[in-house]
TrEMBL record:
Entry superkingdom: Bacteria
GO MF annotations in UniProt: acyltransferase activity, transferring groups other than amino-acyl groups
N-acetyltransferase domain boundaries: 120-254
Membrane-crossing segments per the record: none
Signal peptide: none
Name of the protein described by the UniProt record: GNAT family N-acetyltransferase
UniProt xrefs under Pfam families: Rv0428c_C (PF24553)
Alphabetized CDD domains for the sequence: NAT_SF
Keywords: Acyltransferase, Transferase
Organism the protein comes from: Hoeflea prorocentri
Amino acid sequence: MQDLASVRRLEALGFRAWPAASIQYDGSWQVRLTAGHPSKRLNSVNPLDPSDHRDIEKRVERTAQRFRAYGRPLVFRQSPLAPPQLDAYFDAHGWRRFDETRVMTAEIGHLDLDAVLDHLPIREIGRYVDASIQVHGRDRALKPGLTEVLSSIRPEAGFFVIEEAGSGPVATVLCVHDNDMAGIFELATRSDSRRKGHAREVVTTALRWARMRGAEKAWLQVEADNVAAVSLYESVGFRETYRYDYRQAPETADGD
């Protein structure tokens, strides 16, 4: 049986670590919207109570109106906290299910981090954003929105970049230290520099940094079909805690 208390804590950590510009509530449904960035985590409805399933049709329409006002497609992010009746409603109306994601955790004290090379996080958000966009191969038009999101993070954030002389950044990751927890986000390795150990190096470096600041447990989110990333995280010591996915009406298309 799913440990909903653990799910609630990890969901709350995720919201703090990846803050949306606008947060509203419809009952226990958290409506997150961000005009400057298309991330689904920043632009989705997040039901947070399995027992809150009243007036589903009316509430879905209300949230659809909010998303239309933002120019965003309506997306529901369905974790174990979402009521089963809501999924049944989506099934009955032909809403598709996509981008299943695994939430994984690890006890930092059980990880082998002593031989990890120390890399200090960089201080300039703009420099990290430039490196992240380059390594991910993303559109540079996302820079203002990503900078705004990262600047809004309230817990301590470590921005890590692995660089090679002559070729620039090859791997990036964001580590958010929140009390005894450390969240790993936005891991990427440049396409021409994969399978060289850069991803493991930058992740373990970030975890070592978090451990030195008192973090005891690490967590992350990774798409279930990203076999290479899941394999990397499992080899480091992460194990699955729960999954979530997204639901969307058949007449709309998901963004990035």
